[in-house]
């Protein structure tokens, strides 16, 4: 599938998230005020902030689709990674907010038991967001999009928050508010852990980091190409969902241009079999040891 087609397909996931957040925040706030549930109201306001995160992902995907220009020779694909980074910040803020509210709940007893309907609204919201999470996760794997994957993890965090809100509401109704506090602490930590994972991955990409295991795996493929004597240099980086690889290999010095070019094409084919969205630049150098051995003979 074409790269830009993938990015356009990723927009669908962002729009689904935005639609879900608008719908759920509306019913949570409405029933939260009606049913006297602070937990559901807080969850509703949380979803309002998630709309911003989803919009950031959508904007990042849109910018990523801009073709290369005179100032961006490699295109604008890193806008997607920046959107992932922004989503991680928003998730971290939400996680800290959940932990803060849980800590505050220890010292602030509930004044009025909420309506049981608010608990079911929270559980319903958790199910909806889990379905959205599964859809976006599958979509991100299909199109290899870090931004859509970040959106999916944000969806999962919101499903957990709604689940915690439902448990907390039931705890308040049945006189066991400790359930709310314990659940909130666990969920808050999960959200922050997820945010940190997305943050590290985004920073790794933006600073041209490259997985060592990927280097080793792809290096083995290059060394197996007929005609390659030595793999002298391997550099890789990710630009959005596209991988750029720069290689230097040594070949026999007596090869002509056509034969050397055939080797570069074979290297590209080998790598692109396992990495479809990959741009490869191969530099050919003569192996001096062959010249020395010929002179000795």
Automatic annotation (TrEMBL):
Residues 15-206 form the Cation efflux protein transmembrane domain. GO terms for cellular component: membrane. Keywords: Membrane, Transmembrane, Transmembrane helix, Transport. InterPro entries: Cation_efflux (IPR002524), Cation_efflux_CTD (IPR027470), Cation_efflux_CTD_sf (IPR036837), Cation_efflux_TM (IPR058533), Cation_efflux_TMD_sf (IPR027469), CDF_Transporter (IPR050291). It is found in: Membrane. Pfam families: Cation_efflux (PF01545), ZT_dimer (PF16916). The keyword Membrane applies. It is a multi-pass membrane protein. The chain crosses the membrane at residues 14-33, 83-103, 115-133, 163-192. Its main location: membrane. Residues 211-286 form the Cation efflux protein cytoplasmic domain. GO terms for molecular function: monoatomic cation transmembrane transporter activity. Belongs to the cation diffusion facilitator (CDF) transporter (TC 2.A.4) family. This is Transporter. It comes from Planococcus halocryophilus.
């Amino acid at each position: 599938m074409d790269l830009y087609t993938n990015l356009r397909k990723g927009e669908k996931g962002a729009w689904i998230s935005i639609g879900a957040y608008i719908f759920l925040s509306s019913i949570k706030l409405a029933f939260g005020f009606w049913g006297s549930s602070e937990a559901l109201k807080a969850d509703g306001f949380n979803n309002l902030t998630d709309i911003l995160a989803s919009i950031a992902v959508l904007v990042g995907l849109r910018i990523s689709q801009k073709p290369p220009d005179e100032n961006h020779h490699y295109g604008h694909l890193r806008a997607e990674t920046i959107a992932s980074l922004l989503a991680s910040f928003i998730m971290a803020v939400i996680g800290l907010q959940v932990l803060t509210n849980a800590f505050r709940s220890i010292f602030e007893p509930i004044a009025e038991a909420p309506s049981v309907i608010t608990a079911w609204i929270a559980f319903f919201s958790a199910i909806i967001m889990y379905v959205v999470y599964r859809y976006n996760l599958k979509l991100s794997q299909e199109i290899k999009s870090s931004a859509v994957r970040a959106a999916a993890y944000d969806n999962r965090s919101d499903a957990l928050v709604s689940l915690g809100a439902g448990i907390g509401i039931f705890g308040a109704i049945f006189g066991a508010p400790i359930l709310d506090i314990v659940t909130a602490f666990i969920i808050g930590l999960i959200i922050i852990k997820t945010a940190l994972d997305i943050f590290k991955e985004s920073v790794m990409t933006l600073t041209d980091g490259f997985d060592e295991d990927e280097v080793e795996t792809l290096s083995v493929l290059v060394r197996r190409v007929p005609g390659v004597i030595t793999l002298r240099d391997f550099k890789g980086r990710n630009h959005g969902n596209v991988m750029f690889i720069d290689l230097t290999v040594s070949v026999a010095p007596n090869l002509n241009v056509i034969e050397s070019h055939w080797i570069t094409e074979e290297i590209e084919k080998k790598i692109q079999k396992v990495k479809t969205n990959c741009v490869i630049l191969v530099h050919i150098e003569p192996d001096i040891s062959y010249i020395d051995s010929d002179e000795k003979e």
